[in-house]
Design goal:
Oligomer: single chain
CATH class of the largest domain: Alpha Beta
Number of helices: 12
Number of domains: 3
CATH topology of the largest domain: Beta-Lactamase
Strand content: 15-25%
Strand order of the largest sheet: 7-3-10-9-8
Order of helices and strands: HHHEEHHHEEEEHHHEHHEEEH
Number of strands: 10
Largest sheet: 5 strands, antiparallel
Structural class: alpha+beta
Length: 342
Amino acid sequence: MALALRKQKILSAVIENYIAFGEPIGSKTLQASTDLNCSSATIRNELADLVQEGYLSQPHTSAGRTPTQKGYRYYIDNLMPKVKLPDRMSEYIENVILSGANAPETILSKTAHALSSLSDMAAVATSPPSGNARVHRIRFVSTGRHTSMAVLITSNGMVKSRLFRCDFVLTPELLSMFDKALNEKFSGVMLSQINQVFLQTVAGNMGELTLFIPDVLLAVYEAAKQALLPSVTVCGETNLLFMEDYNLYSARNALKFLSDTNAISSLLSQNSGDTKIFLGEESGRYELSDSSVLTSRYEISGEKAGAVALVGPVRVDYKMLVAQLEFAAACASKLIGEILEQ
């Protein structure tokens, strides 16, 4: 139900003042911080209506008002302004993520680190869903006379590597032959199709390379299996223990959630758009009943991929955190895309 304009202004002012100061907000504060041009008595009447309608609560009779989950939800969905990230914040996020721009997993880890450091909350980054992922490229990196690294790059931006050893000398010419032959056989193949039967078929069609290839194929197979597993990076969990809006019980429950990779992946995969905010019980997780989860998707090749997220108490500066999340997700998208284009 849409609120009248004056109620919207009062609700927005209550929430923004409460986020800033953490104290119940009274009519005198609202009169001084808004352009309502009405009496304190009129504001009190509107506040009483908002309490009755469930958007605000009043700790006791003479106290000011605080937002309820319903009030926060209305504010986020209808009233929250979109803000531009300050230059110092955008530069910090960009520099931190750039420091890990050698591989998609490192980019995601650095993205979580930047968000956690900037927000003083817990930050999460998840790898893209791997159900439809395919082999994008296989590369070989020499690590010794008899050892080399098979590097598997997937269509969803993941990079997995496995070391293999051979009894014969791995010359640059031989590695170049492996590179050409395996990319011809594996390029575009779904990761889920790379099994023992597939490997046997590939090996049987390698001609003169058949005797040299078993250890190489095994390394690629193990890398593909690893790429199918969901990857979740969590940073800044201990920040939650020092947040004034959390008691020990709430912080412990949030930490319990953050220790469960499957639970994180399941919740963040519910965001099919750009940015989504879960408030308390909206997450469907009892561990997060006193928490908020803000999540934004990054893209790979123009399609929604994995997610970056922030976890903390319900009283947070949503508009600034959304700006941080969306900027970080855009940076991750750009850098992962550049790696895949190489």
